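ok, trying the design again with the full structure, not the truncated one.
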């Protein structure tokens, strides 16, 4: 059985282009892989632990090798559970809209939670940072009102793609594939064309996406 984690980052899943394309992609994968098991994580519905004083204190205690107190340990256990859920997946699909050139704050919250010393990376002053998670297929479906296929969109940069690639690479998930869906707003024919182009790319990707899943 292949286990896939689907992370949905749009709060408007019923009308979101990124969510619509993700459902299309997951349907394609399920048809090609009948034994596929999908774990769905909607960052707007999930109870994400607060990354507050206790969690931050636990992080720095671990970095310095100090013993955690009970409050810190409880906070850290909640975060460790989230990292374990990610690490249990053989493949990952993330769908998200672009907000203000970057990503929704709830998705950033989740990424902050799963990027932790001793759980998803280590640090050594002599060698620097080392990721701890194993490589696996990762597809990122990114919708945006602006079309960044030619570079800047009316002078605006795409900060979401570079951030997501770097954030996942930092914890070991290198080689992520970003499937843009843009523009998601504007003339209906352009939106329909973007949807069609993204769906065609996802159909092609579905044929090979899970071949390297461990």
């Amino acid at each position: 059985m292949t286990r896939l984690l689907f992370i949905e980052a749009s709060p408007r899943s019923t009308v979101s282009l990124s969510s619509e394309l993700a459902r299309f992609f997951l349907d394609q994968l399920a048809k090609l892989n009948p034994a596929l098991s999908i774990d769905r994580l909607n960052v707007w519905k999930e109870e994400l632990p607060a990354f507050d004083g206790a969690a931050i204190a636990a992080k720095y205690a671990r970095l310095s090798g100090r013993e955690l107190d009970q409050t810190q340990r409880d906070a850290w256990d909640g975060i460790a559970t989230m990292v374990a859920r990610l690490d249990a997946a053989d493949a990952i699909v993330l769908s998200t809209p672009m907000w203000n050139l970057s990503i929704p704050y709830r998705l950033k919250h989740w990424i902050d939670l799963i990027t932790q010393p001793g759980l998803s990376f280590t640090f050594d002053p002599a060698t620097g940072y080392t990721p701890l998670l194993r490589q696996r297929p990762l597809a990122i479906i990114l919708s945006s009102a602006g079309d960044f296929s030619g570079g800047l969109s009316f002078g605006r940069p795409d900060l979401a793609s570079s951030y997501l690639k770097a954030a996942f690479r930092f914890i070991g998930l290198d080689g992520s594939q970003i499937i843009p869906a843009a523009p998601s707003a504007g003339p209906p024919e352009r939106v329909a064309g973007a949807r069609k182009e993204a769906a065609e790319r996802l159909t092609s990707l579905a044929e090979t996406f899970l071949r390297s899943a461990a």
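Keeping the full-length input from now on. The radius of gyration is 18 Å.
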